[in-house]
Amino acid sequence: MSQKQKSVSVKAEKQSREDELLKLESKYCSWGDTVHYVKRPNVFKSCKGSYLHDINGVEYLDLQMLYSAVNFGYGNERINNALKKQVDQLPQLACQYLHEEKIMLATKLAQRMEKTFEEKGRIHFNVGGSQALEDSLKLVRNHTGRSLVFAFMGGYHGRTLGASAITSSFRYRERYGHFGDRALFIPFPYCFRCFYGQKRESCNMYCLKQFEKLFETEYYSVYNKKTGQCEFVAFYVEPLQGTGGYVVPPLDYFSGLKKILDEHNVLLVDDEIQMGFFRTGKFMAIENFDVTPDIMVFAKSLTNGVNPISGIWAKEKLISPDVFPPGSTHSTFSSNPLGTAVGLEVMKLIEESDFGTEVNKKGKYFVSRLKSLQKKYSQIGDVDALGLAIRIEMCHKDGYSPDRELTDAMEQIGLSGKLTTGGKTRGLVLDVGGYYKNVFTLAPSLYITEKEIDLGVDLFEETLIKALKKS
Ligand SMILES: Cc1ncc(COP(=O)(O)O)c(C=O)c1O
């Protein structure tokens, strides 16, 4: 058999394995997760740095990194070694017993918050983002005795029942009966598509004024001036909306919001699950806005997408043992030693690096390249970013009407693994978010190189050209 025949036969063998796996998947895996958002899901086999490799050996540049859960790159050796070491030492332990890594991780997180916010607090661990969010709801209820909260239109806080109640999309609640504790959803300062039809240059923060107005009289249904009590006891925010399309609010928005909340006894709960761990150039995204939250929720990149662990930080008065006693929440794997060991290594890595400078530098370069592309294609309606949380809003030719079909087509073309830019057959991993599902939310590895950014922009242009040809 010639070399060429050999490689054709290996390729056919891999292809048939992929077909076989997809057949089994379609029969035995539930389709209730998000895999079947696409027609033909990819089957991946390995990863390194900014790249995924599929079962057929095709390389994909990943510009989304597991919804920002892998900020420190795939297969990060240092982080993986911490996991391997822990596997040999103390791989499992009931969370009712203590281990060193848990204590040290909590210490590092709490001390960092104390230094940043000048507030004493404690850390409480869980496994996934939604579970930590549920724990934060318990803290809020425990402190206030009430259960209703504000949250943002376009906000996403997870898909457990409690998290779905405060996530704005009705789609996530539609099939599951009545949600008595559904949040009151407030428009987010999404200035490219202002809910109130205002312009950022001249609005004078109109949306914030509208929110403040709710407290003017009890007849607006949220606040009793006589008692100083609000029926909505917390406001759940993502500093930058994640699933909502990496929307960057004006930098003085949250300080204005916090002032209103403080005046009316409403807690600020900061969901950093997607934007935390330097995605936006700061340890936590809220630091860009000069605001101290009352409670913070984090997950994803705390363990770089390896062995999950999540957590909450809260001000001492909300979480001290006398108000939040033993047994207030529990989950079997909540502070699992593999997760805490990895989290601790991530924290050490952060302490030894200067991600603040690096992320902002890379983000600026990435955005400048995308803005040049925007000048060539009117379909790119908006490019914006904070650090390496980058949004590209795809529109019709008018540069404003959302074009979901174009966005979907581009995503599919990237995932088909048949791009040829740079003389090599490759794929591109993009994720779609946004209120109209027309926004590419880029969350590349924080270690992405300038060369990879160039490649990413070129591959992005190739997907756009191909999608436009199709339409
Ligand atoms: C901002 C935000 N909150 C909560 C969640 C839910 O986290 P998990 O999927 O780990 O339950 C996510 C997940 O994407 C998120 O981005």
Total beta-strand segments: 17
Largest sheet: 7 strands, mixed
Spans of at least 5 consecutive residues whose pLDDT stays below 50 are none
- SS class: alpha/beta
How many domains, in number, for the residues? 2
Output the CATH topology of the largest domain: Aspartate Aminotransferase, domain 2
Shape: globular
Radius of gyration, rounded? 23 Å
CATH superfamily heading of the largest domain: Type I PLP-dependent aspartate aminotransferase-like (Major domain)
Strand content of the residues, in percent?
A: 15-25%
Can you write the helix and strand succession as a string?
HEEEHHHEHEHEHEEEHEEEHHHEEHEEEH
The top-level CATH class of the largest domain is Alpha Beta
Termini, distance in Å? Answer: 43 Å
Q: Total helix count?
A: 13
If you average the pLDDT, what whole number results? 96
Which quaternary structure do these chains form? single chain
What's the helical proportion of residues?
25-40%
Strands across the major sheet, in which order?
A: 4-12-11-10-9-5-6
CATH architecture of the largest domain: 3-Layer(aba) Sandwich
Question: Which ligands does the model contain, each kind named once?
Answer: pyridoxal-5'-phosphate
